[in-house]
Design brief:
By secondary structure, the chain is an alpha/beta fold. The chain has helices at about 45-55, 95-105, 145-155, 165-175, 270-280, 350-355, 400-410; strands at about 20-30, 35-45, 55, 60, 80-90, 105-115, 120-125, 135-140, 160-165, 180-185, 190-195, 205, 235, 260-265, 285-290, 300, 305-310, 325-330, 335-340, 360, 385-390, 425-430, 430-435, 445-450, 470. The strands form four sheets. A nine-stranded mixed β-sheet has the order 9-15-14-13-12-11-10-24-25. The structure holds zinc ion (2 copies).
């Protein structure tokens, strides 16, 4: 396992002799109160490492080799890291999404100086889960030939593919019909699961296996212990750390998540995401890239008039082009759905998908602002409905936002005390959350949802000793 991806408690030392690195932007977020600036994160690989293990080295070109045929992770020993830096965002970009889109396949050469010394212009993460250290960096664009070479190195072009019909069958084989929906407390991140067995909380399918990382790491519960006893299918909504990092092993431990069958999106990757994909393959898990036209809708038909429909968001950013699931109960007297959104804004799938009224919705993007022109799913008329917010206490993005809550309220959801205090408690009216942003109060935990109101929590898993907590329902 590459050290960067292990769930460590202490920041590992960094090999500062490798101070030249290739990097590409991974994420950007607004800084409240500073509209001309934004916080950006770059994912990097030391140039020396690429010389040693890259797939395009002279006499050792492996870039055309099928990903599934690798029996080791070529980036196992690579120095990969992450830089957090405040950037000025020129007015030529109408939004941060536009900025991200115009930079998402552009690579830079980074020079890291004086890491560890205070007063740098940036922060450096030597591990996905530990504290950053101050650093001084400068970066310059890479020439066009190198850009192409780097994009090829970290693409998923040679990964296995799965088409829409194949995924329909795979989903139908994976679950007879979900009776419970779980939204685990992973801190600032997302992990949902579909459970059909009322005897114990063992999922058939996961939708994201995320965890809080980097600047939000303090919101991650100490123990996230997912159940893999049923060899569940894992569908990853999109390639963002907070949607897969829960699969990373604790120091010197094994991770069953890496041995599972993963369905992922075909998105532009970088050294960190590609290394994760390689770790799955290395652990004999399977990575299959969903290959279906944007706008098409797959439907897996299950028992008891149930079905799971899926589609890809038709936005252009990673968040808004992710996989979306609608778990549907097609009882003519009670048509209803659970809607799993990942970080995809409703604007990019809802009008096309047209799900029935929702018993439960996982609010997109941890409760970030919604696009003004999108519609919001309407709830069922009956008294039991759940609007779930999966976020981490005190997260740096200030999720959930008042605007997200207000838009749901306008669509008919009862948002209780969150109308004035978003994130102020874990449960009010239709809202159930995995965390609260209140300074006091320590109650938190995963959310369990049924098709009708639940009278008691599910017992923990049957055969395995894992200890996921689903306390709010
Ligand atoms: Zn996210
Ligand atoms: Zn995301």
């Amino acid at each position: 396992m590459n050290r960067f991806l292990e769930q460590l408690d202490d920041t590992p030392p960094f090999d500062f002799s490798n101070y030249l690195a290739y990097g590409k932007i991974d994420d950007i977020e607004a800084i409240p109160g500073e509209p001309s600036f934004a916080m950006a994160w770059f994912n990097l690989i030391a140039i020396n490492s690429l010389y040693k293990c890259g797939l395009q080295r002279k006499h050792h070109v492996q870039v055309h080799r099928e990903l599934a045929s690798f029996d080791e992770n070529p980036y196992e020993e690579a120095v990969i890291f992450r830089i957090e830096i405040k950037l000025h965002v020129s007015r030529e970009y109408s939004s941060l999404d536009e900025f991200l889109l115009s930079h998402q396949d552009k690579w830079y050469i980074f020079k890291v100086r004086d890491p560890g010394k205070q007063n740098g212009n940036s922060r450096l993460y030597t591990n996905l889960f530990t504290t950053s250290i101050p650093s001084q960096v400068r970066f310059d664009p890479v020439d066009p030939d190198h850009q192409k070479m780097l994009n090829r190195e970290f693409s998923l072009d040679t990964a296995e593919k799965i088409n829409m019909v194949e995924l329909q069958h795979l989903i139908a084989q994976s679950t007879p019909g979900p009776q419970f929906l779980a939204a685990y407390d992973v801190g600032q991140g997302n992990s949902n699961a579909l459970i059909s067995d009322s005897g114990g909380a063992c999922p058939d399918i996961y939708f994201d296996v995320g965890a809080a990382v980097g600047p939000n790491k303090s919101s991650k519960p100490g123990l996230i212990d997912f159940c893999f006893s049923k060899q569940p299918l894992i569908i990853m909504s999109h390639w963002d750390h907070d949607h897969w990092a829960g699969a990373c092993p604790k120091e010197n431990k094994d991770s069953d998540a890496l041995k599972m069958n993963w369905i992922v999106t075909n998105q532009i990757l970088d050294p960190i995401h590609k290394t994760f994909a390689m770790e799955v393959i290395n652990k004999k898990g399977r990575i299959r890239v969903l290959d279906m036209p944007v706008g098409d809708i797959g439907q897996a038909v299950l028992n008891n008039k149930m079905s799971i429909r899926f589609t890809l968001g038709n936005g252009r950013t990673r968040n808004d082009s992710g996989i979306v699931l609608s778990i549907e109960n097609n009882d003519p007297d009670f048509p209803a759905c659970w809607l799993l959104t990942g970080d995809c804004d409703y604007k990019y799938f809802l009008d096309k998908l047209k799900p029935p009224p929702a018993v439960a919705v996982i609010a997109p993007h941890h409760g970030a602002n919604l696009k003004a022109t999108g519609t919001v799913p309407i709830p069922v008329q009956s008294g039991y409905r759940r609007l779930v917010y999966s976020f981490g206490r005190g997260n740096k993005y200030r999720h959930p936002t008042p605007k997200s809550v207000e838009r749901h309220k306008n669509a008919g959801w009862d948002v209780g005390t969150w109308s004035t205090a978003p994130g102020g408690c874990v449960k009010t009216a239709d809202i159930c959350a995995t965390a609260d942003n209140a300074v006091t109060g320590s109650y938190r935990g995963g959310v369990l949802i049924g098709w009708e109101a639940l009278t008691s929590p599910l017992p923990n898993c049957l055969g395995c000793s894992c200890n996921t907590t689903l306390v709010n329902h």
